[in-house]
Amino acid sequence: MEGRSGIIGAGSMLVDHVQRISHWPDQGWLADIQHSEKSSGGAALNVLFTLARMQVNLPLAGVGMIGEDSDGDFILQLLDEHHIDRQFVLRTRSINTAMTQVMTTPDGQRTFFHARGANGQLDLPHFAAVTTSHRIFHLGYLLLLDSLDVPDAEFGTRSARLLAQMQQRGYLTSLDLVSRVGEYRPLVVPALRWLDYLVINELEAQALTGVSLRTPQGLAAPAAFAEAATWLLQQGVRQRVVIHAPEGAWGQQADGEGCWQPAWCLAPEEIVGSVGAGDAFCAGVLYASHEGWSLTDTLRLAHTCACFNLHAANALDGTRPLAEMQRWMAQAICVSRAADEGRITSAEKT
């Protein structure tokens, strides 16, 4: 990858309309909206803006589809403010920009009401001109990109064909999913052989692999995470699989190295919201992988990115420059240590 530098965030681009509510009401009853704000959302934008706010000094670019509406204008304005190349962000008059109404309760849990909008029109022809010198091409969220989430006679799915094309153009490829109910192996497994990095949460990994990672009794042991990660690597992921959960994350490399890194300790009152925490975690993995960090250091940074994300209601405002987060990380307490000390703990919501 000599001569290549930087990260492309491709796929889901939307606007989050975040409502902080007093409580989650029973059906037919009322809850107070205590605060409202608008923020960017979606895998591509969340990863890119997290990296930009970390001040990592890497070239960043976006690829996506938005509408010719006020939400689309808002996204372009943010891309310009963060100095992210937007030449491959296309606009359409036929449908609005994707949007999500996000309801966040005081304990940080959130519920999404999503309109797929223009993201559903993003398709293979829109990537034809993407031949930049960036190193990593990150695609997300699979399962929300309708035109790419369809069968392909040769590659299995159109998203798999896209990732194969990106590898053939010299990119390291990365993928993230959206958590959803249902059988979606046929839409995801074909893409795995065309990946260098896969970053997903424990529920997504459980649905893909069939390995039980979370039950009503709690989180499975790291050995189960290792089993799931091994299965994913066997499907063709070339370099790293990372499976993250609120309590910690398992990372595993194709050479067999694997490790469990507990999440950092946060008291419940420190958590403002968890919108985009999984994307912030992913941004940490991508930056550390881009820079050749060890697996342990990669997971520590990823947890730190997610932890800072929890301090804001939206997906952006919690992020701090990398140097500041590294100073904090040197003094942070992880969940396993805190549990030994009888502290209340929390971590990124996936």
Topology diagram in text:
Layout: E1 7-11, E2 14-21, E3 33-41, H1 43-53, E4 60-67, H2 70-81, E5 85-92, E6 98-104, E7 110-115, E8 136-142, E9 151-152, E10 156-157, H3 158-168, E11 172-177, H4 185-192, E12 197-201, H5 202-209, E13 214-215, E14 218-219, H6 222-234, E15 240-245, E16 248-253, E17 258-262, H7 277-290, H8 295-309, H9 322-329, H10 335-340
Parallel strand pairs: 1-4, 1-8, 2-6, 4-5, 8-11, 11-12, 12-15
Antiparallel strand pairs: 2-3, 6-7, 9-10, 13-14, 15-16, 16-17
Helix pairs in contact: 1-7, 3-4, 5-6, 7-8, 8-9
Organism: Pantoea nemavictus
Domain Carbohydrate kinase PfkB: 29-313
Protein name: Carbohydrate kinase family protein
Structural summary, described in words:
The structure is a single chain. By secondary structure, the protein is α/β, with parallel strands linked by helices. The chain contains 10 helices and 17 strands. It has helices at 43-53, 70-81, 158-168, 185-192, 202-209, 222-234, 277-290, 295-309, 322-329, 335-340; strands at residues 7-11, 14-21, 33-41, 60-67, 85-92, 98-104, 110-115, 136-142, 151-152, 156-157, 172-177, 197-201, 214-215, 218-219, 240-245, 248-253, 258-262. The strands form 4 sheets. The protein has a 9-stranded mixed sheet with strand order 5-4-1-8-11-12-15-16-17, sandwiched between helices. Helix 3 runs parallel beside helix 4 (185-192), helix 7 (277-290) runs antiparallel to helix 8 (295-309) and helix 8 crosses helix 9 (322-329). It is globular and about 50 Å long. The chain starts with 6 loop residues before the first strand and ends in a 10-residue tail after the last helix. 50% of the residues are buried. GO terms for molecular function: kinase activity. Residues 29-313 form the Carbohydrate kinase PfkB domain. Keywords: Kinase, Transferase. This is Carbohydrate kinase family protein. It comes from Pantoea nemavictus.
